[in-house]
Amino acid sequence: ELPSVCAPSTDGWDASRVSRGSHMGIPLPWPVTLALALAIATLASAQNSAGAAVEALARRSCKYRPLPRNLDEGYSTPEGFVRIAETFGVPFAALVSGGHTVSFQTSQPLLLGFAVQIPFSASVQLQVEVKTAGSTTECSSTWGAAGHLKQCSISGLSLPVGSVTLSFRTRGLGGVEGSGGGAAACLTLRLDLEMTSQAVADRSRQCPQAQVPAGPPQPFLQPSGEIGVSHSTFSASVVGGVVWKGQLPPGPASTLTKLYARITFPSMIYPVRILMEELVSPEASRSTQPLCTRRCFTGTPIANGQVVQRLLPPGISFMVWILAEPPVGAHCANFDFELVAGPSQAERLGEHFLGPPAWLCEGGAWPVRLEQTSKGEAPSAIDPGEGARATLRSRSFALRDVFDLTRASTGAPEVAPLAGLHILEIKVVDVSVFRLSTHRATVPARPVLLPFRAAQAWQMLTNPGQLTAYIQAETARIPSAGREFRHSINTVLQPGEYTLVFIMEIALGGLRPCASLLLQIALDPLDGSLPPGASRGACEASDPGRGMLDMQAMAEPIMLSDLVVRSREYFITLPRPPGSAEEGAGDAKGLEIVARSRVVNLGSWAEPGRPSSMLLARVRSPFSAADFQVAFYEAGNLVGESHLSSDGNGYSAVFGPLVRDGVYEVVLFHVPRRPGSPDGPICVKVSVEIATVMMSSPTSSGRDMLPLPGASTCALLGQTLPSSLAMSIGSAAVLDGDFLLPPQDSVHIIQIVAPPGTQVFVRASLSSEDAEVRLSETGGNSDLQGLVQDRLFLGRVAGASPLGVGIHVARIFSAASCPQLRLHLVVLQVSDAATCPTGGFFGLGGGGQPLLELGQKLAKALAEQPADAAVLRPISVVVPYRGETSVSKTPLRVSSPLTELRIELAVEPPWLPLELLVVHEHEDKVWARAQATGQRLAMLLPSMPRGDYQLQLQIWGASSSVPERCALVFGTAALLQPGGRDTSNYRQEMLDLHELMAVSSFPQMLTPGWSRVQDGLLWSQIFAVPAQGEVATTIVLDQPGLVRLVAEPADILSPRLDGELTQAGVQSMAVTSMVGPGLVTRLSAGTYTLRLRTPNAAVCANCPHDKIPFFVTIGIAADMNAGVACEAATGLGDVGAGVGVTESADSTWLWKRQLTLRNLPQSLKLPITVTHPSVVMIAAWSPFTAHYVRVAFVTEEGLWVGEQRARLSSLEIELPPGSYKMSVEEPAPLFPEPFGCMNIGIAVAMSPFTSLPAPAMYGQATVESPGLIMGPGLGLGARCDGLGALPLPLDTISATGGSGSYGGPIDDAGRLLIRERLLLTDIHDGRKKIFFRMPAGSLLRIAVTSGDAAGVEVVLEEATHRPVAANYYHALGSNGGQVASYMLET
Description:
The chain is mainly beta.
């Protein structure tokens, strides 16, 4: 516990609180010269904050540059032309409440073209409108780099003189998710936009006078190598929007196909794009237009072009389309194009990515095989043996978990493992029903169910003729409002062998992504018991028919504070009687619509002055029998996103705010069984709830507040704890998820429903970062029996007295507006648990003690490995359970200063009361605890310091005697040394947005064949350069011009990139560092070679693809166009004056100055005063090619330089109150100076961390609509509130480093004490550096505590970025808090 506030002594140091001798085993010098504690404390208790304003904690902020509000600020030329090719972030608060607007003024008629793309993980549909004085034009949605409906574009739009506004909106709140499946605060989008004159646009599509190829030749593949289209400039006519198409036939059966294609074109006014179409049949290849029957995707956007870098699965043919807008008159599509395709061995997957894989991904390991047992045969658990993956044996199966897609092998020795596929074998003994559904996929993945075992199924997969003839189940696509299609299979399987194959393609070039999906599988014999809620035979009650949903009556508006469950129950016969259902069409093909509400104008409730309204729908039905789902439509368009319930037997969806005069409809549908069930009809109980919810203003309780801007609000969409959980026959009933916290000092009872006389296992675990919660066994009332902290295991016989689990909320200590708890509850009939091996366990390792053997196998699997070349080592042990408590302890030593630890242990069914702890051996304190999730126990630790630990495996005892049962425990483990290229050192958007941020090698031609110096060239892209190697590219100028290149490392440990220009082997410019000032020169017309090297890069011996990424900004311009007239030159006298004076309402900035200067002083220093904890953004814009002006924060350690993207240099950072200095400089001016003056801008924006609506400030988005208050939604970064928590300072050394708010900077004697509540945002990938300078012989002590301290990593580095090992670590608290102590001799 932290001591009370220290009273300072006369010299500012309380010596009475420092003991002589040693502390925690570390000898301390006297006096102590430095002590530092960085504390992130738990949130204040509700009692202390009851009278305070509501504080809503947003766990992620917007780490991408904010979408501008005015294109005149950093994006337009003096002529009013605009070209943007960049990734931005937009707070959802703005997108859903009026939209984020971008405005500009046109002084002459112009043309506009743009394309906006959103990432694969975004489950919303983006809408963009262009508004002028006389019209409104909406962009059209289509396939993008991330898949279905991920791109929205307009081309060739005429703009009149006057005001123009671009309005960005999302269609509804529903389904917006962050990286962990929780709510996200901002939407990331890629914007490629151009605005120019008709004359310039027409030049881009003139048919060339010189002879060029009319169109690319037909590419083809050979198993021996790569064949494709060499880089060339093409000019082609456009027929019906199609420029060219070429088919890629299926690659060899044992390999993936690596595809690289690149296209660039002169103007976004008339864009040309690549579209990849997966062909369903040979007939599809003869189509004159893309059909996209199964899947399409475009290339990853780059400036005026696209790059396709994909690993394509084997056995599937793709068509490559080049598409353009149909021309008006005699015009051509001009573009540069190249394509290379060829086989790639799956075991060499790492060669296609930078650095090591991301090891701490959510997805778990798969079993290799499911084997159905015969009727009457008891379930059994069989250990597959050393190094083998598990086979599960049961009569019925019910799997629901997040599974990894890239690290799993096929499991068939005769089939080479492919990372582009995952194979799961299924053995069916009796006629059975098989059902599958996918959710939350992070990469495109489609399931296909095939007959036979893996080897034969593999051959079928790579033979389209066989595949068509033998396929057993058609995979149905579930349409989505924004996310890629989900998939579902519902079929009857005859006895035999089957193989489930997941087919996906992966974007290459950058970091290897976390590829996973939430998968739900059920396999039940037809002669078995139906799940609760289903019975055999047709329903006795009259069929409700397709008109059963009366949305007008069911959705009568209610206030959010009055929202209670008010579902209606229906009994529906499956299969549907003739005429009682309709077949889905288009994207809904393969679905059966059971009910459709009347079209209702609910928008009449969205009147001015009334609270905004949201549509809410919930549907529940047994997954294995029916899996009914619900969808909203607005004016015929699908809106909203469904979320799977915590038990897998239902869905919920939310959409809104409703718009005035909006027309809405709700549809109830399911995937019918193919072929139909041979055992006759069944009757299924379906409950449906529809509500229109009025959102009221925030209250002190937070009940009616939307806690995260634009996200699926937990107050509305959050799950409430159920009142009961019914046992299933043959498989476990699992309740797993996050739930709204019940009131303090209350007990919520979950009744366990089971037939009388049935013996059941009940396993429960509970956790919460917002409250102190307890579990108990209860007899159906609030009397608590055997109250325990966070886990419970029962073996009971269901009888006349109720059986239940009590959840007691003892104390709420979070002031978050929507506190939650996490519950994992399993109910299993004892007879469905596996019997134990007849030979006992005494022949096994660990002295016949399986739990000890499991610990020993874990410790062996956790032998340290370099992260660059690591593997996940499989583990499996059959563990018996006799109702007794047992514990095993196995020592684990970590030798490296810092490691990453990953352990996952799966149990199927997940009834075994197993717990995994890592205990710090020195102090016998829990360092980490595995969390129950899905079918697994998972432990993912980003920072495991050097030391001695114990792996503790515990089995809880039952409260009564139970028969002996066994469980197969299987999984993987790895302890990873961060060597070579650590993934955490890269820009994390390269991992998160691999489909939107291309990372490619330099092209053969850096300047496209269609480019002209007269038109200029300015763009930024990420290129990868070989470590300690060289890459060359060509620059061609058709007239004399200026060339400038500036690079920024995308890996923070690779600071240098050198460039050299030669012409015909003669050096035109000496070797120059491109990082920092960059390369700038005047060149004559001609052809030049640019050679790039990374001179000081450390070679990563274990990295198969040892390349280093850099952001490179390239500018080419005519010398005569370098300057503007100097008549209106601005003096520097007023620069920096007037900070705090607001600008126009359509500005992003709190303060800005537009300057016309002959030249800039060597370095211009401007003071910035931050009065409240804020997200601060500084920026400068300039022509770049002729004049490159950049901004930086001045610190004691040097400059924190802004990022350069085309014309704009900017730096966004969170800062505590204090005084800071901003530097504005021209680091590499041309000599002699260009003609005329330069036009530059300087701006500052501040967005305080706040939680309640405040008077309008610049840097804030407008987020209020009548009656709906969503919080302030920062224009720069999203809200990140923390009850007085402060951002970390820049340093602890200088007066301008920001540490003054904490009691800094360090004093002359080298002493410093900081004890504050601090916050970390995701603006810089969740990282924040603090610079220290301290005397030799100092002690540095860093403590981190919070409810989620386990996810906070603290690393002390030397100036060379090498980590410094702590002399001592120990755990602090029970939530992963850590203390590190360092003895610094030098």
